[in-house]
Structure formats: C-alpha cells, structure tokens
Amino acid sequence: MQRERELSSPLNDSILFQSKLPEPAIGAYCDTTHRIVIISPLPYSLHELVRELTIQCYDVLVFRHWDEEALSVLPIDLMIVDLSKETKLGAAAPQPLRNQGVPMLRLVNTEILSSEEVNKSSSEGLVNLSLESSTIEQVLNRVHSMLAQGSRQSGQRTDQAQLKDLTVDYNRVAVYVGTARIDVTKTEFDLLKALLDAGGKVLSRQELMDRVWGEQYFGGSNTVDVHVKSLRHKLKDDPKAPKYIATIRGVGYRIAD
To answer: Which stretch of 71-75, 125-129, 190-194 has the lowest confidence by average pLDDT?
Structure first.
C-alpha cells in the first residue's frame, strides 16, 4: 500500500502526493546502503529530502559548508550540493573529491545560477536539478539512477572492501567502522587486506607472514598473533565472539561469518 506524504512538488511548495518509490517495510533492516553527503547552507530546508533518503536505506551526512578535511577522508558514494541559496558556498567540489570521482548532484536555482554556469557544469560531468521545478520524487529517482550508473561503470569496486559495518579503503589506506576512522598501522592494514582478499578462506600464520612481511622474513609466527591482537583491540572485535576476524585453532585466521 502506497503512503501519502506531505512533500514538495517543487521542493519548497508543500502538497500531498502518493510516492511511487519502493520502500522497505516499517522496521526493516537495511542490509545494503550507500553513503550520501548533503552540503547545504540551510539544511532544515531539505529536511523532507533527508527524511526520504533515510527511508530509502541511504546513510545521510549533512554539512553546512565544504569541510575539505572531513570530506576527503570519508568514503562517499554520492554528494548532493544545495546551490539554490545566495551564499558563498562554492559551486565546485574540493579537488580531492573530484580526483576520487565522487558523483555530484547539484540542486540549483536558475534565478541565481546563470544558464551559462549550469551548461558549463553539465559539460564537466556534474548533474544539475532545478530546485524550483523538481519534486522530491524526481530527486530520489535521479539519486537512484546516478548510484546505479556508478555501480555499472565500476562493476565490483576494487578500491574498497566492505565487511558488515567495516569499510577498508585501499586507495587511502584507511579503515572505518561506520563513519569513524580507525587508526591502524600499515602492517595491521595489510593483515586486514590479506584476510579480506582471501574471501573467507583460512590463512595460516605462515601464509599471512608471506603476504604481509614477504617470504624473506624469518620472524616467528607469534608476530602475526601480536598484530592480530592489536588490530582486534582497535576494531573492538571480541575473539570469543568475532565480528571481523575469526581464529581457527591450530591453523590461522579468516574473516568472520
């Protein structure tokens, strides 16, 4: 049964309409999601959009302005930038984000942003939607299509690995639990990567030593145990009830079920 919600037909005019978008059942667990960042100088003006995105199982983070330091370390699947207000918010994403290929959807006001600027940004691969004439449903449909297009273009992502709420970013050599970045050493990162690359296969301590330290390393196998213990501590992973790394007694380690 479709719900009736008080949404905008343009986004800033409240009307009643029936959403045709599929939605999870009330209380359903979202086992897959994407992380969307919204940048708007007036976030409350987009509260209905934020609400609908979360209903559609997206993780939404809201910023009032460009925070390059924070944004450059977050794994982001899509960015929505509100350029509909007369503010000093820059029209272009910080260069690190553009270099990483983060797709951007811009909500524009054609009375503020000239048609020349809109056309120029479109030629640069940015996607624009007019805030005056777009409904929330149209924005959501565009979000769905942009994320689907990104998935088709990249296929199975090779720059990141996901395990439950754990994200390992190979390009940035970074580890996140949820949105919190975990401070790991290069050796701990390489250990985690080796286990993830094994796809659930058990790796012996010797195999892990060969993959992480190289075949010429002659240290004892307890070196692996010490680093795994440290990594588990940082991830708050209980070895008796492992969420990320499971011990196979007498053999080695593998990714937990």
So the answer is: 125-129
* Residue 170 in tokens: 């190979």
Cα–Cα distance between 230 and 245 in angstroms, integer? 12
- Is residue 73 classed exposed, middle or buried when 0-12, 13-18 and 19+ CB atoms within 10 A define those classes? middle
Residues counted in the chain: 257
Percent of the chain with pLDDT over 90: 25
**Mean residue pLDDT across the chain:** 76
How far apart are alpha carbons 81 and 104 in whole angstroms?
7
Q: What is the CA radius of gyration of the chain?
A: 22
Angle between the 186-197 and 222-235 helix axes, to the nearest 10 degrees? 90
Domain spanning 4-154, CATH class: alpha beta
Which class in CATH covers the domain with range 186-255?
A: mainly alpha
Nearest Cα residue to 56 out of 86, 36, 77, 82:
36
Helix/strand/coil for 243: coil
**Vertex 53: Cα angle to 75 and 21 (nearest 5):** 130
Structure tokens of 68?
């390059």
CB atoms within 10 A of CB 223: 16
Look at residue 102 in the predicted model and tell me its pLDDT. 77
Q: Where are the domains of the chain?
A: 4-154, 186-255
In this prediction, residue 112 carries a pLDDT of 64
Give yes or no for a contact between 62 and 38, defined as CB atoms under 8 angstroms apart: yes
With 0.85 as the threshold, say if the pTM is over it.
Answer: no
